[in-house]
Inverse folding.
């Protein structure tokens, strides 16, 4: 019987994702694989793996080869679909409407200036990079059996310059 | 000589923050205290401390007492300013314009559906709470001397119900 | 003769609902079933049942089995359509244009801060969950024969934390 | 010592509320009264009482008299402030930014069409009035000590006509 | 020869109107009927008739029968298209772009508060219903041969309540 | 005792209305005059009178003289305030938030294309002028004691040209 | 060899123009006719001719006959496509993105109030009609060989009334 | 007696115009001068003169000297107010709300692509400059006594390049 | 093996680009050509070449001939696709969502007024043309092996006029 | 006599810039200094200098000392005004309304994807930093006496990572 707890993609709801998203999610549903499974098979982080599926991260030649084998997708076809460069940021509307994504956004909305103040004092005038950046999601279960999601962001700090060297 | 690396507040730029924000930031500037200093003095997390300053978190009676002493603000006055409930979310425009805050937002925009897919598969149909929630910012320096900001979010997972019990 | 008082779905008007919505509403129209009938057959609340049809609530394995039988939809097909996780919130535009939905929205717009003030004083600094939440719609007829709609929301109260434990 | 759990108003955050809101909330803070107290004194529902404070409901002559006495506000002054007709809906931004109000809004966003479908089938083609309407907030505590907020809406049903009589 | 003064519908311009709109307007064009003709045949007001065509008003069983005969549309097909409940308000963008509709909107934009002030003083605190409502368009020609459009709105007045009975 | 049913203006809520609005409404409140009273005294329609108060209609020299006398406002002062040309349309936000004004707007939103179709067929390709235009609000009470608001719009029809003569 | 300086229409870029636009532009491309040519053949102004092609102006019976002959389009087909009334204003987004159209818009944005002030003083309180209106584009070449575009607008002036006659 | 047909400025309605606008319009009102008068005195076009008053055009040293004398404004003061560079485009909201300005905008909205097509065919791929640009407003009265506003735009044509020379 | 570092186009993500974009990018992918290669073959700048592919720049007859040969696209077909005039500006949303394009935008957002102030003082009151304009992208590698992108804009300066000659 | 070609700041037009902007621009106007002069005195690039004035760049301790001396501003006062961290991006509206800034924006809007494609092929999947970034404006005069503005951007290239190290 089918697993009812796998992330899927319905292109009626996401008409502007790249063609690769439809192909990858279809294969994932056929195989009944979770992102945890796929990530461990291709040796990448789960969030990065899902980001490849949503067209938000670039797959390497090695990723494509592994995904092709794991998901039984023709290698040349997958290569042609994933060969270009991601056009990021289109999948989430502004502000996000889905409750799960909205809450991530709400944290930025509420604590944005608190983060800025603390980071500026800790690191100086600059930004935490969202490019030289990694992230992960972990699950903790406390002693009362409650689950907690732990999200970690790690980004390089860049000082803002504005002078010609 | 004045420290040029302290977060300050200019009410011309933020005319709709609560009155308490102006009072607290003025005192912070007079004392030349960092949020690290204030947080350690009142025994709260740095981000939570900054959130109180921006009117995004409620101060407890104990917080008010400690802030009043630490910053030389009349206790009754601070109590009356901080006695109500925060009206959150107004300080950050949509989308954020400041580069530091924009990058936090960009992570949600780019990876929102990747987080959703991974979290749904890990925890089921629900959300990571932004209310039963804690966060921190840490600084790491790698072997090449580069600084990295590490942001952690920890929120309780709530399964979505829609039935009367 | 066809019942002219059944909720239907025209995908020209809702091109971005999930595929499952079109399938379920088509079967509902063929069977000429009301949501009251379907809800009582599958043992769920009417609003939750309609929410499943609009892709706003996740159907359980049991829901899928019952819906499949009741509506003569192939079980495997329905399972594959409803197996993923809902991507919520896309069906209603901002602000709502339909007069019925607008009035629900208008109540929040007019009385939002009144609800906040009363709830904060009654429960403290936090929120009424929209996730650990149930709702129902009831019909009352007064002595003059006027009908009244009674909507009930019941959500768990969560206190806002912002500290690492 | 001041009660830290009373709803207050900071006009820096709400510069476009009517003058009466500032006057009423100031007096409420001075008296340290909750809305529960004020509502019971003037014989109105708590939400309606708070709505008067936010300029979203019209006070009757009797309300004004009672509020004037209870809060020690000059009767003529209060009468001139509350004599006009409310200009509703300006206090909540679109979409709401405060987490508590956002969740009320989110319920409408997610379940708007489910409510519409269920109400249309139950009552016919029309709307639940937001004008011939009453509401209340109640607190329930379950056996595990968790608090639940229960919001009730009761609105008259009006059938949509479009014909000259 | 074809009449060049009949309202028609081009679905390229209105992709989100209900399927019934396309069917009804196609038949109207084939028959070369004006709304005046159709309205008088089905015994309804012209604006209400056009509103049915645009999916903004619900057709009764009798309307469907008459439209089916008048326009040679299969009765069962029309019944299935018009059997649900209208999802109103999507056809006009905000603000309206068509000059004719924009001018109707402009009247509300310019005189909205003047109407509110006059109505509030005449009727009290409430609204003119847009639901218990009828409207018509009439043509007058003055002595200089100029045409004038006269639009009438007639809506029930509802006093705003906010108390539980 | 003060009349609690007179339209007033609170400039906190309308900071961008012209200075004349504040002056006229203050005088109206002092005199405790309704728009019906003022309109009959200056010999203009009630809606037009209210439109002058809101800065949406230009007062003639005669209007200014009469308003000055009726409301005890210095004639020169009123003349200098009302001497320019109205800058219309700023008072109503988009879409309107006040429930009374929203319902006027909703009529245009729902029936805009129905009006267009009926008017085009009746008058040809053009518009009903919102400039060569008059309007009124009337009150009807039916045999059951219900009040009905009747709004009339009368605008000249202009055919759309696009050719040099 | 094809003329590379003819205005064409790509429906991928303009999916919501009327069907007639696609038909007319296709025929124009096949014939390799400029708007100057077409306008002179049908005896209308160039801008008006192009406006018919974009669905912004109504073609007369005579226009349709001439266009049908000139462009070899079946007369009955063209008549059915152009028989209704234009639904204007959808082709240009807000603000315009194309640089040529943006600059027209920018003139209104920068000098809108200057035009208003000058026109009000010259003509009184009213508007220049965009309906009883004609326009043309002319080309001038100065002595240095520079080209200048000269756009003329000629609109009737209507005084704003607001009184019942 | 004061002229009731002079353009004035109320800074409540335009809080973000430059300080010079308030000073110039105040002096204009005191002198009771029309823009026609001022323009002819300073030797500039009426629209350009009004544009200086609204902060949309830069005054030359000679303009400042003449305006200072004509309007009795201290020369040094006017020079300091007008010495910088205009920050254009803020006075008109998007889309314009005032009916007069809206109609100018509507012409661009309706005929934007018609202008583009005609201009592209006449001049090639480029734009009519809004910078190397002049404009005027003229009044015509036809034989029936109707007034017509004639607006002329004259802009240099620039071909779009995209190559390094 | 396919090159994974070539820019490609997925029309699901860009449904409103011109048909020519799909044709050109398909041929580019088939040939596995970079823009550097194509630009050098047709003798144009890389950015201008890419702009032709995205429908943002007009191809000359010579460009079309060269592209047709280089990419094996039927000359007549390419000529008919590229024969019209570009309808620019639709490909980038506002604000840009893709991180690379957002950063270009951010530079304008942050330093827009700094550029204006410096340019105005250097050149007078006017603009740097975006039409009489060229641009290029260069790659520099510093001694530490870091790559730097250098973008150059060169636009003619036009003084703003507003007078008839 | 005053220089009419210096950039100035009118706080009516920019009410939300930091207090330091008003102070610095006031002193600049008093001294009648250009940014070229100030930049050369403090040893920074002109654009960076202007960015400090607009609150978009952080001044170093040395900058503050030099600005204080050069502009006769009290050192302690300037230090307290400039001691915090810039809150960037608020000065430019979206899209920019001023013609000069709009054209910078238009370049990004038109050529954004062309830049992305060229940069991705040249540098890989990543971004040109707007933080590790410098910029300058230069003036060129060609042999015909035309002025050209040359803007250079130089930003470090960062490859997008998404993996934990």
């Amino acid at each position: 019987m089918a697993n009812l707890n796998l992330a899927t993609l319905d292109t009626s709801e996401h008409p502007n994702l790249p063609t690769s998203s439809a192909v990858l999610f279809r294969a994932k549903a056929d195989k009944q694989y979770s992102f945890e499974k796929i990530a461990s098979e291709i040796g990448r982080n789960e969030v990065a793996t899902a980001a490849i599926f949503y067209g938000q991260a670039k797959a390497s030649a090695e990723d494509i080869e592994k995904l092709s084998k794991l998901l039984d997708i023709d290698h040349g076809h997958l290569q042609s679909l994933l060969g270009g460069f991601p056009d990021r940021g289109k999948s989430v509307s502004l502000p996000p409407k889905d409750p799960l994504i909205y809450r991530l956004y709400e944290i930025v909305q509420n604590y944005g200036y608190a983060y800025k103040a603390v980071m500026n004092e800790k690191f100086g005038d600059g930004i935490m990079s969202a490019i030289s950046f990694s992230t992960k999601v972990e699950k903790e279960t406390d002693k009362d059996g409650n689950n907690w999601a732990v999200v970690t962001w790690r980004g390089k700090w860049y000082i803002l310059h504005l002078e010609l060297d």
Observations:
- The radius of gyration of chain D is 19 Å.
- The beta strands of chain D are 126-141, 147-159.
- The helical segments of chain D are 19-31, 35-42, 46-53, 61-71, 75-82, 99-123.
